[in-house]
Task: structure prediction
Amino acid sequence: MSARNPGIELDLEWLSNVRVNHPAVLRRAQQIQSRKLVKKEWQAAWLLRAVTCIDLTTLSGDDTPSNVHRLCLKATRPIRDDLLKSMDMHDKGVTTAAVCVYPARVADAVKTLRAAKSNIPVASVATGFPAGQTALKTRIEEVRQAVEDGASEIDIVINRTLALTGQWQALYDEIRQFREACGEAHMKTILAVGDLGSFTNVYKASLVAMMAGSDFIKTSTGKETVNATFPVAIVMVRAIRDFLRRTGHKVGFKPAGGIRTAKESLVWLTLMKEELGDEWLRADLFRLGASSLLTDIERQVNKQTAGQFPIKK
Result:
């Protein structure tokens, strides 16, 4: 990952001046979605780039050591060897960016990846995922335990009540405590945008999360009714851009929830390139939270290396 975001003091004046132009956001999102995708001869390479940005995820109530083991092995070899050889990429160490699991499964993931001699990081959700409604002391301890078990990335979830009621100082203070509990681990902050009610709340929550030291801001838990959408992404990446201009600190972006097709992954990469630049096309500043996306990407890479059916607009 990139250098950690140290955060800044909470700037309530900045928050009070936030205005989001709703129609303009929707127009920009529509522009991105209607763009022609990369030329067919480049699509396989872009899809491999998407693979290297995936946080391969399992967050199910029936997760077991065995299915976490399988997930980790898939993360180390996400694309079939014969397909990589056909692209002369078989010796380039293509893996997913991370694996993401519940805190109770962190030790299982760490054990499997160490046995496979892989340095893929283990990310853990925490802080009462997905609702964030447990006691603060419990949420902090959950972060510490996940780090102790070997997680090097922590995906925290905010208390949406604080955002919805405008308690920005309280939200900032909680996130700072989570940041401290992470120690050397990088912290991704899940805003659960589907619960925040407005683009203005999304923008303000993004700013507060970054001010409090988040290394990434993430759209969703994947458990809300509305998850990663392109309009919300525009709001969040514009907040990242504004934070960079104001502070000089780069913060990553992670859409998650409902991202299932190779075509969608190409649109997400296009959005990042156009809004934040090429630097945000790498795993240290961009992640895709997904569980089933990899299957479709592999299918499409297979078709394209065989000269069949490029992904169309």
